[in-house]
Design a protein that fits this description.
The protein is mostly beta strands and 148 residues long. It has a single domain (4-113), classed as Tumour Suppressor Smad4, CATH 2.60.200.20. Helix content is 7%, strand content 41%. It has helices at residues 122-125, 141-147; strands spanning 7-15, 18-24, 28-32, 39-40, 51-57, 63-69, 81-83, 86-88, 90-92, 98-102, 105-113. The strands form 2 sheets. A 6-stranded antiparallel beta sheet has the order 2-1-11-10-7-8, with no helix packed on it. A 5-stranded mixed beta sheet has the order 4-3-5-6-9, with no helix packed on it. The longest helix has 7 residues, at 141-147.
C-alpha cells in the first residue's frame, strides 16, 4: 500500500449556500464563481476563476496540493487569497489551513492520514475458527434460572 492511498485530502467550503465538503483526488481543480469551475463558490465578491489547486508528488510517495491565486494562465483574482491570515499568491497546503476568498467565503483544508495496518488471514497464523449455531446449544432450565 502506498502512502498516497493512505492519505485523504479534503477541502471544506463555507459560503452563502452553507458548507460543502470536497474529497480531492484529481491533479487540478479550478475554484471560483464560474459554472465551469470544479469547486463553485457562491459570492459576488469571488472572481469567476478565483484560484487553482494543483497536486504535486512529495518525497514519501504521497502528494500535496498547492493553491494558486487565479487561473493556470496567470490571470489573478480581483481580491486575492488570504491564507492563514496572510495575503499570498501561492501556498503549499498543510492540514487545517484556512483560505479566505472574500467576505463570508472561506475554505479549510484537511490532510487525513490513515495508519498502515496489515491483516493476516487466520490460516497463515494457525488459528482455528469454529462457528457455532446458537440453536444447537442446549441449556438446562435449572441452570438458566440460576443466572437470571
Amino acid at each position: 500500500m502506498t502512502l498516497a492511498s493512505r492519505q485523504t485530502h479534503k477541502l471544506i467550503i463555507e459560503d452563502s449556500k452553507g458548507q460543502e465538503e470536497y474529497t480531492l483526488e484529481d491533479p487540478v481543480y479550478s475554484i471560483g464563481r464560474d459554472l465551469n469551475c470544479n469547486i463553485r463558490l457562491s459570492s459576488y465578491f469571488v472572481s469567476r476563476h478565483h484560484a487553482t489547486l494543483v497536486r504535486f508528488p512529495d518525497e514519501e510517495g504521497g502528494y500535496y496540493y498547492r493553491i494558486v491565486d487565479g487561473n493556470l494562465k496567470g490571470k489573478l483574482s480581483a481580491n486575492g487569497l488570504l491564507i492563514n491570515g496572510r495575503r499570498l499568491q501561492a501556498h503549499d497546503l498543510n492540514d487545517k489551513d484556512t483560505i479566505v476568498f472574500g467576505p463570508q467565503v472561506q475554505a479549510t483544508y484537511y490532510l487525513l492520514e490513515r495508519e498502515h495496518t496489515t491483516t493476516i488471514p487466520p490460516d497463515e497464523e494457525g488459528f482455528d475458527i469454529t462457528l457455532i449455531n446458537p440453536g444447537s446449544v442446549y441449556v438446562e432450565e435449572d441452570t438458566a434460572d440460576s443466572f437470571g
